[in-house]
Amino acid sequence: MLKGILAISGQSGLFKMVAESKNSIIVESLDTQKRIPVYSSAKVSALEDIAIYTFEGDVHLKDIFKSISEKEDGGQALSPKSSGNDLKAYFEEVVPEFDRDRVYVSDIKKVLLWYNTLQEKDMLDFSEPEESTEEKKDSEE
Question: Which domain of life is it from (predicted)?
């Protein structure tokens, strides 16, 4: 679901990886559809690798997005421009066990902004990938 979707430090919005070259990757903005090169010196984070601190461990972004989607019946989340207290209260409903000391309001804003962007672009798919027959056979044994 989040494979190939990137956040780039210093750039607003989300990007989709389009191609790789020897010393850079080519990404396309989800907002403007413009393609730009991103060099190895840039801090690039794949959304599928991002997790939020909780008291029980880390929760991956896809699971948080799924919780938001269930809460909102597939609709938009709370606006990331809401007050800090509103954002914390909303996030507590979605991820009740999140670590309030290590998860900042700015992190919550990013999560909600990313969710709303992906939801708007109809890029959120929470259906489980089908296991291959070999994987099913292995898990049954």
Answer: Bacteria
Q: What is the DSSP string of 80-134?
A: TTS-HHHHHHHHHHHSTTB-TTTS-HHHHHHHHHHHHHHHHTT----PPPPPPHH
Question: What is the number of residues in the chain?
Answer: 141
Q: Which two tokens stand for residue 15?
A: 């990007």
State if pTM tops 0.70.
yes
CATH number of the domain that 19 lies in?
2.30.30
Token readout for 16 is 């989709």
Helix (H, G, I), strand (E, B) or coil at 132: coil
Domain assignment of residue 126, yes or no? no
Number of Cβ within a 10 Å radius of residue 63: 15
User: Residue-wise over 68-85: b if at least 16 C-beta within 10 A, else e?
Assistant: bbeeeeeeebbebebeee
Which domain does 59 fall in, by range? 51-120
- How do residues 18-70 score in pLDDT, each as one tens digit? 999 889 999 999 999 999 999 989 999 999 999 999 999 999 999 999 999 99
Determine the Cα–Cα distance for residues 98 and 57; give it in Å rounded to an integer. 9
